Amino acid sequence: MEAAAEEAADLVPSLVALRRDLHAHPELGFKEHRTAARVAESLHAAGIEVHEGIGGTGIVGVLRAGSGQRTLGLRADMDALAIEERTGLPWQSRTPGCFHGCGHDGHTAMLIGAAQALARDPGFSGTLNLIFQPAEEGLGGARRMIEDGLFDRFPCDRVYALHNWPGLPAGTIATRAGPIMGAADKFRISVEGKGGHAAIPQDTPDAILAAAAIVQQLNTVVARDIPPSAYAVLSVTEIGGGHTHNVLPATVRLGGTVRTFDPAVQDRIEQRIRQILAGAETSFEVHSRLEYDRYYPATVNDPAAAADVIEVAGAIGEAQWAPEPAATSEDFSFMLQQRPGAYIWLGQGRGERAPPLHNPHYDFNDDVLEIGMRLHIALARHWLVAQT
């Protein structure tokens, strides 16, 4: 392990510079043209075979060594968030309303560093596919790459991805068998009355009153319709309707999210939402429309792949089993539906007041670049063992 540490350490200064350059030039999903070009340039310079334009702006680097038949995929996401950065750092985003508030700049830099180290000294026998994915933040870039033939063109017996985790101490590596991230659904509800004068409400079905009742009932679904042993979240996050004090609006719109880990629970929640809307239509003489989008499935780790992570990580630093999954979502879930593998959390915490992910004051902790790179290297060498 000492040699692996040395080969990772000498790359860290250049990776810090790369990470901060990516941070200063963030790009939203499916628009990662500059980022993809930097990735391709770095892989080409290391002598790695590069394939561009997969699923839009996705990149796959292919590194073969020896005669082994095993294949492995390591994924990093490249996209930024539509948030205005407030860090004031020298490498702060130069693009208004866009910044790397989830650390994908760090993920990309770590995988590039691992690729560079492995290109110099593979230490494995088989094929490593380095997957640089666009559009993780709600746009399904992983699904787009799969639809574009990712696993047909670049077979993977296993796939791994890691994500920085501010809630864990810097350098701690954690994962779990089974669900680790939630399924993400989003809903939009339109409640329609007729509209009319606020002084004569008896002549106008009240869309605001109906919407208020719907919000109250939606917030009872998890507490009263889902078993206590099943994890679920339903949050109403948007409400809008009306424009003046003396008019009952014709339409009120609601929106929100549902997070679950069990498809049966997911089905039950959607069913209850529809039942609540049907009841409101009868009670308030309004009409309603529901748009329900199950846009990311739950991220579910293969137990054997997760166990290998803990074994490998224990030789690098602090490794632990995560006691429970997170309700946040991740489109690596689509890859894990296609191939066995595991999603990994890499601690980057800087104390209790460190900004969380998706916060305008967040910044990736460059101190964990080396351990993330070493983890990628170790996973490749662990799975792509010499074949007999």
Question: Brief description of this entry?
Answer:
The protein is an alpha/beta fold and 388 residues long.
Written overview of the protein:
35% of the residues lie in helices and 27% in strands. It has 388 residues and is of the alpha/beta class. It folds into two domains: 2-180 and 299-383, Zn peptidases (Aminopeptidase); 183-296, Alpha-Beta Plaits (2-Layer Sandwich), CATH 3.30.70. The strands form four sheets. Strands 1-2-4-3-5-16-6-15 form an eight-stranded mixed sheet, sandwiched between helices. Helix 7 (207-218) runs antiparallel to helix 9 and helix 10 (303-314) packs across helix 12. The longest helix is centred in the last third of the chain and has 22 residues, at 263-284. The mean pLDDT is 95.
Biggest β-sheet, characterized? 8 strands, mixed
What pattern of helices and strands is seen along the backbone?
Answer: HHHEEEHEHHEEEEEHHEEEHEEHEHEH
Using the 3D structure, state the CATH architecture of the largest domain.
3-Layer(aba) Sandwich
Tell me the domain tally.
Answer: 2
Spatial extent as radius of gyration: 24 Å
CATH topology of the largest domain: Aminopeptidase
Q: Mean pLDDT score, rounded?
A: 95
Principal-axis shape equals elongated
Given as residue ranges, the uncertain stretches (5+ residues, pLDDT < 50) are none
CATH superfamily of the largest domain: Zn peptidases
- Approximately what portion of the residues adopt beta-strand conformation? 25-35%
Count of β-strands: 16
Q: Please count the helical segments.
A: 12
The CATH class label of the largest domain is: Alpha Beta
Distance between the termini: 24 Å
